[in-house]
Amino acid sequence: MRRQKEFNLARYLITGAAGFIGRSIAAALLARGESVRGVDSLITGKRENLTGLEAMEFLQGDLADPVTCQKACAGVEIVFHEAALASVPRSVADPIGTNVNCVDATLNLLVAARDAGVRRVVYAGSSSAYGDTPTLPKREDMVPKPISPYAVAKLAGEHYMQAFARVYGLETVVLRYFNVFGPYQDPSSHYSGVLAIFCRKMLAGEQPTIYGDGEQSRDFTFIENVVEGNLLAATAPAEKASGKVMNLATGSRITLNQVFQLLCELTGYRGKPAYAAERAGDIRDSLADISRARELLGYTPRVDFREGLQRTVDWYRAAGA
Ligand code: UD1
Fold this sequence. Notes:
The protein is of the alpha/beta class. About 40% of the residues lie in helices and about 15% in strands. The protein has 12 helices and 13 strands. Helix 2 (about 20-30) packs across helix 8 and helix 5 (about 95-115) packs parallel to helix 6 (about 150-170). Uridine-diphosphate-N-acetylglucosamine binds near residues 127, 128, 179, 283 and 286.
């Protein structure tokens, strides 16, 4: 605390702080009375997500610019790197944009973090790194097989994290997120996560579209579990967690057809879904083994899928999204 008062510097930096996951981590840190700086380019982040986070110092800027990274990292001890263009189809449409905003941005951030004497960077990895291999659940010791430009970009970021831990002694922790959902997730783009899109549409009485036969499955993870995993990753002993990659999920999965049924119950929607062609770059099934995060971080998911979905529907209903 003394350090912050003397230098008026933030102890924590959150990249992508105006995005769904970044703003949720920021809210949790601020609630604990921590000093927090957020940076966001507002390419996909939204200024309105900063409402309620007024105690956070906010820097608008793009991590593709090294100077922004330097300003963002100055005086910081711990970074949560959530900024990305988080979409498989977006990366299929614009692989270079995804590379700039995921790979270049991550490398710039790591260099700035190293130079600023940051102690630890916690990285938002992605389950997409596993690709479309049939073996379930996904374990971190499996060979990655990314099949979309997005998955390649997020995996490249993981490798940079591990290299910086090894070569420069920067503590880095990679959390591979599995389909995160919850309040504040943007439902308005066709690149949005499926649950955000379905909640918004079904609450408005509009027909959702299922790509493929709806039998694909995901380990959908409620945002509060992800925030908890990040806070644990920030404090876990370096000998256990630094340089490691671990899944952050619930360890259970559900198909899109089942999700649709559940959402009919929760939203009161009475129609049927439309079915359309399977999306390019899509994977069939995704399920995490979460024993490594349990062992290294003491992580255990607290909110199960149904409760998370109920809370998410309630939030979209109240927000009138
Ligand atoms: C992938 C990654 C995830 C990453 C996310 C970022 C995997 C397993 N997961 O998620 O780690 O964080 O990208 O976006 O690779 N769908 C519909 N109708 C819609 C929208 C989507 O049926 O209106 C389907 C998709 O075709 C897909 C599923 O829902 O089969 C989930 O899609 P989405 O929410 O975009 O996430 P993933 O692509 O699984």
